[in-house]
């Protein structure tokens, strides 16, 4: 029996859960860390079941212990075994394998991936899987949540202060996705002691490392203090500059300004593997030598290094405004930045498409609107250049001749997960390879995967479908858009680039409710998307089959980065930041609200 929870509320210290059913579903809370269940007290009136738990008596005469408690149903001893799970609940086996996969050593995972083996094919023993299921004898897959409820779960947090406000118990309802991408809800219990100095961090080896790096920067700054206007282009999530960084760098050199502003570059991925101390020292030395620093995307080194007053740190942010929440717009959600020690707070300037976006990015970066420069995106300066388009099309057509034989559908979704370290895309849940292939066969189309660079796992396209389904994730999305007939995305901002080319966009969002609840969105896809919105795989394939997107013309008001269409964004950045010129429209007017 699947129950849909319609309401969750608080009445003093009682957490109240309401759902409709013919009989009670025996809901419980389960704490994985201690393998402990706590029962809800359930009453049935008509078809309405009310389940209540007192958080001050969750452990008998003690309150609920700290940690995350999953709203679930308990399995019997027979059900919490591998034979029953295989026969009746295969998802329990999938969850167990994914958890065991996560417990493997990094070297084991790398070796398995090299051999083309994933979590599903890894040779876990039946004993390992059985033990994992027995250690987590619960299920959440018979519990669903109404879409209206998931939208405001974040508003249900409560803080209970006690002992004259010196201590507090915080209770939060947290929507999350389990390893099989099923929406679950956790009750997070945290205990706090009053802290009059919230900026102060408790001592830890990690914090000591950061303090030492910060001290080293200050010493290096004194020794390596720049005698000229050194410009550093810096990135921590890849080995190559982003298009925005490259555009500013190249234009600086084209104008001959690099003689007055010498350029140095540091690009590496600090989000994967063990980071060698030598490379950290080289990064910090480069930062210490520089008077101007341009970065793109999140650079965690600036969480603990605060550039001094005569250093200008500029975030050239590669993306426009999509739908997903980023930065401080995610505050309070998993992956949100520290309110005190965050790289975002260090920016002297950050770039935006135009002045209309200052309000959004002020929230994202947690900085004042005056620090946001409406320059446009430098990477788009030559995006509409006919020669560039022709060269890209010629290169791609020569490399992939099939692009000229039929309709090209480019699929470019954003990642799931809190950030680069945990980024993934749930292919198994959202991609029906056979249905897409059959649609492509009937319509003479090619479906091109262009996955976000954070996502390590590529789509496993069956060989039988490889003539129509292609993984071109190593290609530039900008170049692929030139040959695309239609773009498919979800919460990403890449649709803006497609609109500039006056091409249609389809939004495939099968996890719209779950994504909004767990990741957060700044703008509603349903309300703001300039194209057809598809909630299911069947609807998605049908829209592509019938080319139904042709009847939905992009709203011109959605192209809210109009200043970029005129080009010269890189010049505006150079003039405003390096040459300190007053560039019309770039800085916030003093009388602006």
TrEMBL record:
Q: Which GO terms describe its biological process?
A: teichoic acid biosynthetic process
- Source superkingdom: Bacteria
Question: What's one GO MF term for it?
Answer: CDP-glycerol glycerophosphotransferase activity
Question: What is the residue range of the signal peptide feature?
Answer: none
Q: Which family does it belong to?
A: Belongs to the CDP-glycerol glycerophosphotransferase family.
Q: Under which name does UniProt file this protein?
A: Glycosyl transferase
In what way does this protein cross or attach to the membrane?
Peripheral membrane protein
Annotated compartments: Cell membrane
> What species is given as this protein's source?
Adlercreutzia rubneri
One GO cellular-component annotation of the UniProt record comes to: plasma membrane
Q: Which UniProt keywords apply?
A: Cell membrane, Membrane, Teichoic acid biosynthesis, Transferase
């Amino acid at each position: 029996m699947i129950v849909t929870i319609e309401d969750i509320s608080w009445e003093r210290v009682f957490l109240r859960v309401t759902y409709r059913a013919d009989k009670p579903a025996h809901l419980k809370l389960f704490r994985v860390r201690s393998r402990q269940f706590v029962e809800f007290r359930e009453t049935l009136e008509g078809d309405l079941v009310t389940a209540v738990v007192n958080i001050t008596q969750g452990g008998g005469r003690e309150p609920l212990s700290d940690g995350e408690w999953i709203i679930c149903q308990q399995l019997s001893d027979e059900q919490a075994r591998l034979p029953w799970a295989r026969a009746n609940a295969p998802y329990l086996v999938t969850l167990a394998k994914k958890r065991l996969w996560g417990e493997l050593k990094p070297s084991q995972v790398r070796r398995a991936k090299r051999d083309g083996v994933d979590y599903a094919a890894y040779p876990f023993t039946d004993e390992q899987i059985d033990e994992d299921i027995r250690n987590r004898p619960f299920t959440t897959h018979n519990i669903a949540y109404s879409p209206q409820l998931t939208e405001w779960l974040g508003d249900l947090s409560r803080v209970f202060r006690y002992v004259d406000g010196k201590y507090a118990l915080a209770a939060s309802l947290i929507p999350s996705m389990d390893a099989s991408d099923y929406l679950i809800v956790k009750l997070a219990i945290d205990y706090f002691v009053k802290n009059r100095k919230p900026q102060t961090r408790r001592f830890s080896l990690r914090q000591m490392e950061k303090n030492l790096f910060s001290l080293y920067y200050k010493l290096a700054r004194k020794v390596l203090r720049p005698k000229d206007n050194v410009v550093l282009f810096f990135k921590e999530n890849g080995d190559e500059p982003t298009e925005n960084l490259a555009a500013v760098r190249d234009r600086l050199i084209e104008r001959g300004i690099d003689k007055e502003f010498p350029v140095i570059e540091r690009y590496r991925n600090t989000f994967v593997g063990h980071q060698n101390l030598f490379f950290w020292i080289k990064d910090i030395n480069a930062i210490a030598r520089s008077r101007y620093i341009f970065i793109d995307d999140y650079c965690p080194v600036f969480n603990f290094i605060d550039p001094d007053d005569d250093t200008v740190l500029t975030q050239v942010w590669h993306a426009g405004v999509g739908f997903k929440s980023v930065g401080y717009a995610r505050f309070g959600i998993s992956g949100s930045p520290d309110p005190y020690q965050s790289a975002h707070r260090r920016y002297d300037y950050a770039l935006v498409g135009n002045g209309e976006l200052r309000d959004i990015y002020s929230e994202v970066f947690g900085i004042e609107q005056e620090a946001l420069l409406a320059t446009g995106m430098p990477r788009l300066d030559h995006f509409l250049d006919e020669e560039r388009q022709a060269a890209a099309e010629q290169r791609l057509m020569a490399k992939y001749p099939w692009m000229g034989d039929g309709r090209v559908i480019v699929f470019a979704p954003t990642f799931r997960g809190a950030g680069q370290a945990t980024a993934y895309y749930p292919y198994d849940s959202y991609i029906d390879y056979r249905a897409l292939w059959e649609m492509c066969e009937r319509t003479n189309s090619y479906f091109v995967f262009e996955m976000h660079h954070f996502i390590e796992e590529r789509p496993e396209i069956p060989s039988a479908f490889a003539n129509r389904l292609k993984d071109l994730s190593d290609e530039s999305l900008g170049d692929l858009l030139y040959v695309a007939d239609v773009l498919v995305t979800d919460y990403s901002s890449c649709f803006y680039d497609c609109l500039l080319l006056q091409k249609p966009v389809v939004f495939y969002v099968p996890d719209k409710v779950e994504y909004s609840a767990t990741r957060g969105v700044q703008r509603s896809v349903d309300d703001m998307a300039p194209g057809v919105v598809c909630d299911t795989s069947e609807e998605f394939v049908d829209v592509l089959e019938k080319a139904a997107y042709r009847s939905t013309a992009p709203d011109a008001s959605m192209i809210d980065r109009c200043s970029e269409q005129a080009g010269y964004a890189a010049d505006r950045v150079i003039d405003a930041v390096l040459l300190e010129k007053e560039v019309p429209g770039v800085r916030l007017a003093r009388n602006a609200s």
